[in-house]
Amino acid sequence: MSKIAQVLSIAGSDSGGGAGIQADLKTFQERGVFGTTTITAITAQNTTGVFDIHPIPLKTIQLQLKAIADDFMIKAFKIGMLGSPELIKCVSTSIQDYNFGYFVLDPVMITKGGIPLLQQDAIKAIKDELIPLCDVITPNLHEAKALTNIDITNKKSAKEAALILQEIGAKVVVIKAGNTNNSKKETSEDWVFTQDEEFTLSSPRFITSQTHGTGCTFSACITAELAKGNSMKQSIILAKDYITEAISNPLNIGTGHGPTNHWAYSLKVKNT
Hints:
With 272 residues, this protein is α/β, with parallel strands linked by helices. The protein is built from nine helices and nine strands. The chain has one domain: 3-Layer(aba) Sandwich (UDP-N-acetylmuramoyl-L-alanine:D-glutamate ligase), CATH 3.40.1190. Strand 4, helix 3 and strand 5 (102-105) form a beta-alpha-beta unit. Helix 5 (141-148) packs across helix 6. The protein is globular. The chain starts with 5 loop residues before the first strand and ends with a helix.
């Protein structure tokens, strides 16, 4: 029996390698866990945009999940972007049939710049089908507003939104406020609300376009740490450090919004 923690990502494929399944696998590898996947869509994209999306048939998604459950001991899993209510319902039904451990939900619905990625019926399906099941949810400011109708401008309003998400069923809420329009602020803050406490994660703010896949990477790191047996608080704090290093040490790949540096944290630890 392997002692290596095994994890699962349920998300779309990013042909540019910066987000989605590719970002998750890179993060899993860097954090010392074995990553498995259920691919929900294939995209044609790079740092400048998304040019085509090919949804995977629901039966194939169900069979991917069954194949993972039949042969691996998954300790934690994450869900990224699911493009339709039908897909959300399919995944929700399937994951309840298996013991995949901790559930990290990255509700990919709206870009950091505020561009919607999902229709309202899909957003409702996330609220109805996935949030009641998750151990931790990691929305950005726009996604948190879409899920709660709370315009988040500070920690007080973030707490109001978090309480709504917890009433729906999420145990822990991490509201990522790093994408605030207040570029004059010197720090990037995320607000964390558990069932027992609340705390703020703060890091220096970096003005950069090299941020493609930050949400995927952050949630994947939480997933990996939970699978290794770390506490929820430890996992979230380490994930903040991990993504801070990934953003602050850019690779400068591509001509658009480039990917983060998934191995920057490992290099920092090695050189410390």
